[in-house]
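Chapter summary example.
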Amino acid sequence: MPDTAQCRVCSGTVEEFFDFGRQPLADAFVTPGQTDGEFFYRMAVGMCQSCTMVQLMEEVPRQRMFHEDYPYLSSGSSVMRTHFEKTAEHFLNTELTGPDPFIVEFGSNDGIMLKSLADRGIRHLGVEPSGGVADMAAAKGIRVRKSFFEESSALEIAASDGQADVIYAANTFSHIAYVDSIFRGVKALLAPNGVFVFEDPYFLEIVERTSFDQIYDEHFYFFAVRSVQAMAAQYGLELVHVERLPVHGGEVRYTVAHAGARPVSPAVGELLTEEDARRLTDPGTLQGFGASVNKTREQLMGLLQDIRAQGGRVVGYGATAKSATVINYCGITPELVDFICDTTPAKQGKLTPGSHIPVRDAKAFAEPYPDYALLFAWNHADEIMAKERDFRMAGGRWILYTPEVKVV
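The structure predicted for these 408 residues follows.
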């Protein structure tokens, strides 16, 4: 019998369908010589038999993940900067057209989306618990509250600023296990005709691309249209629109409103039909996903070991949070991957969590070029490969592992 847990959304029974074993915190890069005391947990994923929400079987305490030294920056990619600028324009043209519009973004990070709105004079508030990135946003002139978004903070915001026309979250809502408090907060803070808009990795894409590295400690939920629809309804809200997005390997932008406040877009029914056609919630589909994960591990490790046996040199590209899953589940070591280059200063000079592969400045990639580059930041493949054209010209080859292991 598979392990079970209680669903954090509807209190139904969650049945485990894959176990990634002992995993570290994905963003807990460690200082050389100070590797003792790393936090590990069992990372397994299951699906609720009632509401179909896919979720981790165990929750990592939020303070361990989101803190003063949290290293991820939303503005680190030109693709994402463009995405958030377009998102801001979308809100300006649709939801923020009244006399004194107000938008709240939780998980606002370094303020890349709110900056465009602040520059237009839009009343706004970022809610960000990670102090370092919150300070970066404040330095750009963005109004930021350093706290977690939950019912208590939402009530305080509503009392001081009034209700919001838009509540927005990008790659944040799926991180938060306590959805009951989030939705009570949204209900209190959202204006009668306002919208709660959030975008997160799409579970259908994860299954079809075998992008299992999207599963790590910070991602507690893995949303699909059916499970989000059920979740919203439980709190007197309604899923009124969905839009597929190409960023981060395939996401969906969900738009939720007060029940009955807005018509439901045909796009909702269309994606529900697609999920049913792909048998997304069938046990056989989930078992097939697990088999594909193990096949990827076997093929990737075989390739890396063969390259090393032939005297080749491999360097990782992008010390992403999701790389922790593939590195630790596959068992990739510094003997197989010399180091990982990354543009984030906070990660440079550190070691990857669990596996202790050195992280170096991006300039080290060309000093000299390796024979192969294992692309952990595969969701930015086009941007990175265009930037690193000289690597290919020098005879270097890229290793990709989603949707399948291949060398290009």
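To summarize the output: The longest helix spans residues 283-309.
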